[in-house]
């Protein structure tokens, strides 16, 4: 059975070029969508200019194209979605579900790292303040199609989290929910480093009255020191040469069936076979 109107997505931030860990997330989401005759969208999450690398967004799109991961429709740029985020914030404010907070990171660290609702009833104005979501209905667990039931850290799940930052930027949790709903994303396939904020995102979906998508969190690629392969850890960019050996290695990392004589296939043929043999059940989830 194929899922009706399946829509998946890959949503990188332009803080650097794609590396092998990024390819795992991109390829996994691509194969999951294509195996269900679904649409696969690409969104550039460029809402944090201080962290962006000039030219990285263009490079990311070129890398996806080079590796044969062709998306459907137009790329959505978060930098062009500010009005939608403002509307979402206005809705929450009208519902009495947000408030301004002037607490510093150092204060929150001093009380154990989780925000305690200190400003919830102080009626601060917007001056030099972040906007927090009032967490009336915490989500303490959710179902992941790879991991099964995942239990949240209860303090994190109950926290009034930031939805608009003190520096005027929109928070990731708000933007990702608004955009996934706008694009009709039915299943989110991404790296296991994003398991933790999922319960916050689900609580926003529920507060907006939107359909919560399904979730799949793929295993992370680790470097030789056991740390997540990431731009912050200076992971090398994807090679610019023949993409087929790298795609083959990514399929092996995802524990997919070996494709016979893959060296003799074109990139398009290799990806087509990978779609046909794709098995989410074969992927080995994070051991954590």
TrEMBL record:
CC cofactor note: Binds 1 zinc ion per subunit.
Assigned EC number: 6.1.1.-
InterPro entries: Glu-Q_tRNA(Asp)_Synthase, Glu/Gln-tRNA-synth, Glu/Gln-tRNA-synth_Ib_cat-dom, GluQ/Sye, Rossmann-like_a/b/a_fold
Motif ('HIGH' region): 12-22
Keywords of the record: Aminoacyl-tRNA synthetase, ATP-binding, Ligase, Metal-binding, Nucleotide-binding, Protein biosynthesis, Zinc
Cofactor names: Zn(2+)
UniProt source species: Buttiauxella gaviniae
Keyword Metal-binding applies: yes
Short motif ('KMSKS' region): ranges: 228-232
Annotated Glutamyl/glutaminyl-tRNA synthetase class Ib catalytic domain residues: 9-234
One Pfam family linked to the record: tRNA-synt_1c
Gene of this entry: gluQRS
Superkingdom per UniProt: Bacteria
Sequence positions that bind Zn(2+): 101, 103, 115, 119
Principal EC category: ligase
Entry's Gene Ontology molecular function annotations: ligase activity
Binding residues annotated for ATP, in chain numbering: 231
Amino acids binding L-glutamate: 9-13, 45, 172, 190
Known function: Catalyzes the tRNA-independent activation of glutamate in presence of ATP and the subsequent transfer of glutamate onto a tRNA(Asp). Glutamate is transferred on the 2-amino-5-(4,5-dihydroxy-2-cyclopenten-1-yl) moiety of the queuosine in the wobble position of the QUC anticodon.
Protein name: Glutamyl-Q tRNA(Asp) synthetase
Similarity remark: Belongs to the class-I aminoacyl-tRNA synthetase family. GluQ subfamily.
Alphabetical list of SUPFAM superfamilies matching this protein: Nucleotidylyl transferase (SSF52374)
